[in-house]
Design brief:
It comes from Tamaricihabitans halophyticus. The protein has 21 helices and 29 strands. The protein is an alpha/beta fold. Helix 4 runs parallel beside helix 11 and helix 17 packs across helix 19. The structure holds ligand 6R9.
């Protein structure tokens, strides 16, 4: 904190990128978004958001767009009343679009189900009647522990309809993770399944619920969908089958309007340390921003597009871009239950071809996995329907972006790299297709209506080419309304670092390029310090991925007696690369030199290890903390939020046998 502003950037700017891809004239001519939106929004931010909110159905209009008098606790559309579920189903039926497909659901074993908006309205009404019959009333919390099946969507919307606040927990988290989340929210009911399909097998889920609920007295009812058909233990009086409860209910239900600030859901983020934070989202502002971003960032044409977001519903991306945004917009979408390599590694391309998917929104981790599986797979399918591609969850390395463009987008479909967080509720920084000339690896510009800055240690905005911290300097409609039950932690975590300026601190490193476009550089906790240079993990990883043999890379700073920290890299090879050769001294030296040429000798990894997998969370984020343990020869720490906890054994045993 002693440095003068602008003189000591929080991050060195190492990598540069000169490729740009302007939109085609045809795309621009039909695009939803326009360049004027930036100026309109800048001229009067609140009026701009009011116009967006008017796209929804409100039972009662608001009296004030934004009340920021109790900052950092925002109120948007004060006094307004709406029903979120009505907006996501009934409204489209009322407008004459009941026959439009809302969901093409594809089960992992190959079964499928088509749900129109009229079906959705009926199913949600039935589910709402069922939940009401259990005695659940407005304000109660409901935990949802289910995979990607239609009932998960019905459950979320039925909760929204009744004003129940849902808390979705990743199906696959342990019973302990479920227990602590149920307990924190004091949930009254748990909605779950007997089991889920993963890679062709049934993984039981109910046992984890039984274990958790044994220790959570707040839970009165457990509703179980039959999906895996596996045997389950049963607690009479508490457990009830979904089909026994829901099927006989009336499919008519009148939706009551709730306050714009009524709590819609809690979603827990694990964070790097400590107890998970229950991020709270409310109704009117959240739905406004989810729908607006979905319409403009993906250029959605509800009459003709087939949209597919590959995220899990247990991640915020599933909440905003499978459930609330697309359904509020009346979109037709694909929901897929299973893993991308079941029964084969081209399952996604098969689904794109089968449904004629036009908009495909996925994560860098999956794109890099596709690179590893090989270029030939997307080439075997007809992907010509794709017209917009999106990425979210991590910085996308420029080479992964180029691979996505070439092999999936046929060098035509614009790519939107969308930066946001569980806390922001919806997309904040992203190109607009048809407006922005895109650049591989950059999220580019805050959306119209959104304001973000890259600042130095003192909170001063850095200039072009400068690196620092990403902050959000103005409130936005979808912003979190706090951490469930812990207002102090909310202030401490997000508002104290740049408290003097009143900025929200996102926890990410970022830089501007010479054009003023924003590049995300990874979590500031992961920044490496090598001989006094602050180097972002993202830039070194992108340099490694730009080598033809590397599909994926993760780097960490490990304590080093001479340089403070030394860079240790873990790399996964691309499909078809001979492993023995790539592990040889010569190949490793070549890779180290490649990084030096791409971004400078200071970033040359001290050590590079070839590994079969990387440790990732369920949303695909690399857990560098665990790799630091390996690099510094420590016992590996807590692995409970890993998608696959065996990965760390795989890495450690592989490294042992190489010695
Ligand atoms: C939506 C989501 C948030 C963190 C965020 C950042 C990283 C997400 C990104 C990105 C670079 C992007 N992140 N999108 N980094 N470019 N396009 O991922 O929410 O799970 O809460 O994670 O993810 O580090 O701070 P969440």
């Amino acid at each position: 904190m002693t440095e003068q502003s602008g003189q000591n950037p929080a991050l060195d700017n190492l990598l540069s990128e000169s490729r740009t891809f302007p939109p085609s004239a045809e795309f621009a001519a039909q695009a939803n978004a326009t360049a004027e939106m930036y100026t309109t929004a800048d001229a009067d931010r609140e009026a701009f958001w009011a116009t967006q909110a008017e796209q929804l159905h409100w039972e009662t209009s608001w009296s004030k767009v934004l009340d920021w008098s109790e900052a950092p606790f925002a109120k948007w559309f004060v006094g307004g009343k709406l029903n979120v579920a009505y907006n996501c189903a009934d409204r489209h039926v009322a407008a004459g679009n009941g026959d439009r497909v809302a969901i093409h659901w594809e089960g992992e074993p190959g079964d499928s189900r088509t749900i129109t908006y009229a079906d959705l309205q009926r199913e949600v009404s039935r589910t709402a009647n069922a939940f009401a019959s259990l005695g659940l009333t407005k304000g109660d919390r409901v935990a949802i522990y289910m995979q990607m099946i239609p009932e998960t969507v019905f459950t979320m919307l039925a909760c929204a309809r009744l004003g129940l606040t849902h808390s979705v927990v990743f199906a696959g988290f342990s019973s302990e993770a479920l227990r602590s989340r149920i307990d924190d929210a004091q949930a009254k009911a748990v909605i779950t399944v007997d089991g889920q399909f993963r890679r062709g097998k049934v993984a039981p889920l109910k046992p984890a619920v039984d274990e958790a609920v044994a220790q959570t007295p707040s839970v009165e009812k457990v509703v179980v969908v039959k999906r895996g058909e596996n045997d389950v233990a049963w607690t009479e009086g508490r457990d009830i089958w979904w089909h026994d409860l829901v099927d006989h209910q009336s499919d008519q239900h009148t939706a009551e309007a709730h306050d714009a600030e009524h709590p819609l859901y809690i979603l827990y983020t694990s964070g790097t340390t400590g107890k998970p934070k229950g991020i709270l989202h409310t109704s009117g502002g959240y739905l406004t921003q989810a729908a607006y971003t979905h319409r403009n960032v993906f250029d959605l044409k509800p009459e003709s597009d087939v949209y597919w977001c590959t995220a899990d519903i247990g991640w915020v991306t599933g909440h905003s871009y499978i459930v609330y945004g697309p359904l509020a917009n009346g979109a037709t979408q694909v929901i897929y239950e299973g893993t991308p390599n079941s029964p084969h590694e081209a399952r996604h391309w098969e689904i794109v071809q089968k449904y004629g998917v036009t908009i495909y929104y996925t994560a860098p981790t999956l794109i890099r996995t596709f690179m590893k599986w090989g270029d030939h797979l997307p080439a075997e399918y007809d992907l010509s329907s794709l017209r917009v591609l999106g990425s979210v969850g991590e910085p996308i390395n420029p080479e992964a972006w180029m691979w996505f463009r070439e092999h999936v987008g046929r060098n035509q479909a614009p790519i939107v790299d969308t930066w946001w967080q569980t806390e922001t509720g919806a997309i904040m920084i992203s190109p607009l297709p048809g407006v922005t000339a895109t650049k591989p690896g950059s999220a580019q510009r805050p959306l119209p209506g959104i304001s973000a800055k890259v600042v130095d240690d003192t909170g001063e905005q850095v200039g072009p080419g400068g690196g620092g911290y990403l902050v959000l300097d103005k409130p936005w409609p979808g912003m979190l309304r706090g951490i469930w039950g812990d207002p102090e932690r909310y202030r401490d975590t997000y508002w104290s670092r740049f408290g003097a300026q009143g900025y929200y601190f996102a926890g990410d490193g970022a830089k501007y390029d010479e054009d003023g476009d924003v590049w995300l550089l990874g979590r500031v906790d992961d920044v490496m310090n090598v001989s006094g240079h602050r180097i972002s993990t993202t830039e070194v990883e992108s340099a490694l991925v730009s080598h033809p043999t590397v599909a994926e890379a993760a780097v960490v700073g490990a304590t080093d007696p001479t340089t403070g920290q030394g860079i240790v890299a873990f790399v996964i090879l691309r499909g078809g690369v001979a492993e023995d050769e790539a592990k040889g001294t010569e190949a490793i030296t070549a890779l180290r030199n490649h990084v030096a040429t791409e971004i400078g000798p200071i970033a040359k990894p001290r050590q590079i290890m070839v590994v079969p997998e990387l440790p990732k969370t369920r949303s695909g984020k690399i857990m560098r903390r665990l790799l630091r343990d390996v690099a510094e020869n420590r016992q590996v720490g807590d692995v409970t939020t890993l998608a696959d906890s065996s990965v760390m054994d795989l890495i450690s045993s592989g490294l042992q046998s190489d010695k």
